[in-house]
Amino acid sequence: xxxxxxxxxxxxxxxxxxxxxxxxxxxxxxxxxxxxxxxxxxxxxxxxxxxxxxxxxxxxxxxxxxxxxxxxxxxxxxxxxxxxxxxxxxxxxxxxxxxxxxxxxxxxxxxxxxxxxxxxxxxxxxxxxxxxxxxxxxxxxxxxxxxxxxxxxxxxxxxxxxxxxxxxxxxxxxxxxxxxxxxxxxxxxxxxxxxxxxxxxxxxxxxxxxxxxxxxxxxxxxxxxxxxxxxxxxxxxxxxxxxxxxxxxxxxxxxxxxxxxxxxxxxxxxxxxxxxxxxxxxxxxxxxxxxxxxxxxxxxxxxxxxxxxxxxxxxxxxxxxxxxxxxxxxxxxxxxxxxxxxxxxxxxxxxxxxxxxxxxxxxxxxxxxxxxxxxxxxxxxxxxxxxxxxxxxxxxxxxxxxxxxxxxxxxxxxxxxxxxxxxxxxxxxxxxxxxxxxxxxxxxxxxxxxxxxxxxxxxxxxxxxxxxxxxxxxxxxxxxxxxxxxxxxxxxxxxxxxx
Length: 499
Description:
Strand order of the largest sheet: 5-4-1-8-9-10
Strand content: 15-25%
Number of helices: 17
Helix content: 25-40%
Number of domains: 2
């Protein structure tokens, strides 16, 4: 069994760089939402009531619910159409603008007098303090139902996969006559031979009858199947549900326990979780179903697609807030030896910094050559990470190292050095720079904490005046005695190596 899984993973790796998602069109139908993040400073308690006073610093809007599923697909490079309901209100206009910026086709029906579902989260110092939900949940009217059904009829024939993203906000509620958009969509897709993936909600799973795959989380699965103990019992429950609702398969997402794929004519496939650090699970299920459908659309098997979805989920739960997986992150996961997704280009920094700042994260910055990684580097990185929520490490390019250290350096090229530093768990981003000092980068990043080795006086640290003037601080890390790259390089050169 493990040999088969290894062979399957090798096939995924081999296919990864050649996956051309731009050739596939996927339709997402479901409950569309707008997520708002308010970054705030909390420094006092209100005199009016025993509650904290949040001073708003900035607001950020991102696509949520079914729209986040569509965003994940767009980020992978897929052609995407999003269908659902929203309101003719300010939130609906923001939603439409975000969809346009992502390059998605919009088949949303804006309801006159309706309310766009919006979830507002107030965040301070990286912690969510409060969530405010603005929503009205009801079954579609007969007119709305007809409009969405017409959209399905137009778009489904052009698609390679259909995703139903159910957040129990009304789109898939049954009409008075018992009809349901989920059933209509599955029937239309089945007639065209198009697979349907469903992210379910609630206890009326008969709405999803005939779906190619349903992706409940562990709690939703147990609510539908009843209690059980152990993998054997879980598999039996999955088969029972598949038989009851004519599902072809179930993919159960189990958080820290990974995933389990149950197919009618195959043994269960249990996949271990890939996340190294869980920051925020918001939107992880959206990423799973998006990657699953995208991989199927380009020709991967269900098992291969499930493995890819599992790896993608491990990436997004390590990010703050509702964040999709990017094409670069996905390709890095599927290419052995390829650069870590932590290694970023300078042009990517503004987006990364904005997301961290919006989440209220503090940022530390360290720099150097990091040639022949040693205990001193580890101490520097770990102590730097302890000063903040996010750590950026900047590395000199090979040309810069040669200018600073001589023609015999670096021992390792920039890509190798970057991969080693990125492999350290406490590092959040690695960036290369070609200048003799990181002053330009520091000016762009404006970190909260500037970290340097203790062999440098505070007043001589490049960028120290900028950081302190901006309210930040400089932190010096004590060196590890007798350990440096130069010393290691000298020892290697003077010792005889034996085979």
